[in-house]
Amino acid sequence: MRILVADDAGFIRQVVKEALAQASAEAGYVTLYEASTGPEALEMALNQAPDVCLIDMVLPGMSGWQVAKQIKQVLPATRLIAFTSLEWSEVKAIINDSFEFDGYLKKPFKKHELFDVLNLDSQLLE
Question: Which residues contact 30 (CB under 8 A, 6 or more apart)?
């Protein structure tokens, strides 16, 4: 599974990387790409065609919603996960559009929540 994590906070990207390292080591199927700005996330997604994108809603240069919308136009099979400290109702109010994310992960998150939203085998947590 190819996963893009787009978040301007390096420590958040590191937490995701560490959480997924175990899944990658044990199952050998996680490749992680990282981006810290909206334009970088869009470019990375278009070049790498990830299976899933975890996209922070507040990114420098371009909002996460704008990034997600453009990715979905070019890569409709890519799952887009809103990745934010906001409540889902707040995200929907900000977007104010018919665009739908494929999932939502609220920060801070627990490892099992990350695995659930990515549809990874929770047995890898043990």
Answer: 1, 3, 20, 23, 24, 120
Q: Cα 42 to the chain's mean position, in Å?
A: 12
Amino acid (1-letter code) at residue 82: A
Q: Taking the mean position of all CA atoms in its chain, how far away is CA 82?
A: 7
As given in the structure block, the two tokens for residue 22 are 């175990």
* Cα–Cα distance measured from residue 79 to residue 116, given in angstroms and rounded to the nearest whole number: 13
Q: How many CB atoms lie within 10 A of CB 99?
A: 12
Ramachandran angles phi, psi of 98, nearest 5° = -80, -5
14-58: pLDDT as tens digits: 999 988 887 666 656 688 999 999 999 999 999 999 999 999 998
Yes or no: is domain 2-121 CATH 3.40.50.2300? yes
pTM: predicted TM-score of the whole model, two decimal places: 0.87
- The better pLDDT of the pair 120, 24 is held by 120
Instruction: For the chain, give every domain's residue range.
Output: 2-121
Tokens of 61: 């240069």
